[in-house]
Design goal:
Blueprint (H helix, E strand, L loop, with lengths): L1 E4 L5 E7 L12 E9 L5 H11 L23 E2 H5 L6 H12 L10 E7 L2 E6 H4 L3 E4 L6 H15 L5 E7 L23 E6 L3 H22 L4 H11 L12 H7 L4 E2 L7 E2 L1 H10 L5 E7 L1 H5 L11 H18 L1 E7 L9 H4 L3 E5 L13 E5 L5 E8 L40 H15 L10
Helix pairs in contact: 3-13, 5-13, 6-11
Length: about 450
Amino acid sequence: MALLSGDVATALRLLRVARTETAANGRGGPVGHGTLGTVDAVSLAWAERFARALAPLRTDQPGGERHARVSAPLPRAARLLDELGLARATPASLMARWADAADDTRALGGRAHGVLGAGPRGPVTVDLPAEGPHLLIEGPPGSGRTELLRALVASLASAERPDRLGIVLVDGRDGVSAGGGQGEGLRVCTDVPHVTTHLTANDPVRMREFAQSLSAELKRRAELLGRSDFAEWHTGREVSGRLVAQRTHAGHAASGATAESGDVESPPSSTLRLRPGAARRRAAAVVPLPRLVVVVDDLDALVTPPLGSPGRPAAGSVMRALEAVAREGERLGVHLVAATAPGGRTAQTEPSLRATLRVVLDAPVPGPDEPAPGRGWLTRPDGQTVEFQGGRVTGRIPRTATLRPTVVPLEWHRMGDPPTRRPVRELGNGPTDLALLASALERAAREVSAARVPSLL
């Protein structure tokens, strides 16, 4: 039994009640004087905050029962840098990410980890080496396909050094046949240091040269890897780069100065062993083999080029090279990310048939309360689907704007959910997020002395 008393009901007396009935009152009564304590009085607002903090917590359930994970409603619009955790993109923060990728033993040869946007439980990501190797994005015109490709390019570059990851951009639809309505396409991503090549389907000579160069790159990688795949080849390089020579006898220390310039040392036995310096030089002599991501916008325009398109005669050669990437890229460390309109002949092509990661974007719906372009679903290789709002990277976000309070309705069944994301308000002045990120990436690449991946053109 608990008795509350005092001026504001802060005195608590806990009494033990007897289980046996007494003859006097016909029921059990308190035993002894009990234990006296003081209640920690709190305000209603404090109690409400505490209750909301406890609402998502669940006790361990026997038999492996699991509760549904807490999720938050998707925002109407999302900013990619916020989802990347790079609200202030600086060279130091990018170099820290690159250093983490270099220490990741699961990303030998280069990390290809991209962020699509905001999901119900945090950023929605794709890992091309682990889940891919290829990604296909489908959506009607105006659904945000090009912006999603730009976000992928930015997130891929922020996760890996430019000498361990190269990005090739292909704009399948030329501005002439599109009536100038395509905008800048993927050209705005060319300032990112990871981008080695940008092709627009408006010059048949340049398109054929690109197709030949891409096919030659696949052949070069196949000859270099032999029977190994991309990860196995880099595992061998890691091991060969860490060879340690056998310790020499102390009596040969004096003669070591004369033989230090050579690659071979003469230990007491008759066995010849390579010096560590020679092993490093031999490993360095091998041509570096970074991961390569080919990003294609408007793949359907290459499959069925419109009449009057300048690049129509060479579209077939580019498409054959991309189909070779779809067939052989997984073993060679080359990944394909393509965006296309739903339906048509694209569904029967190799990039569509071999894409294990798929994104379907919703048609845009006008209205102030409707989601911005970029709302869609990601389907993973295991069949799981997750909804997301694509991260915008070409918006102009005010850096020093005053943040005002955000008031949103809170339904009882959403209590305990994470707080609602603050809506993003863009202004028409200042550089874009992509331009700020590209500048930071360029400075970070100079700091780490990262060599550029050769261009295909």
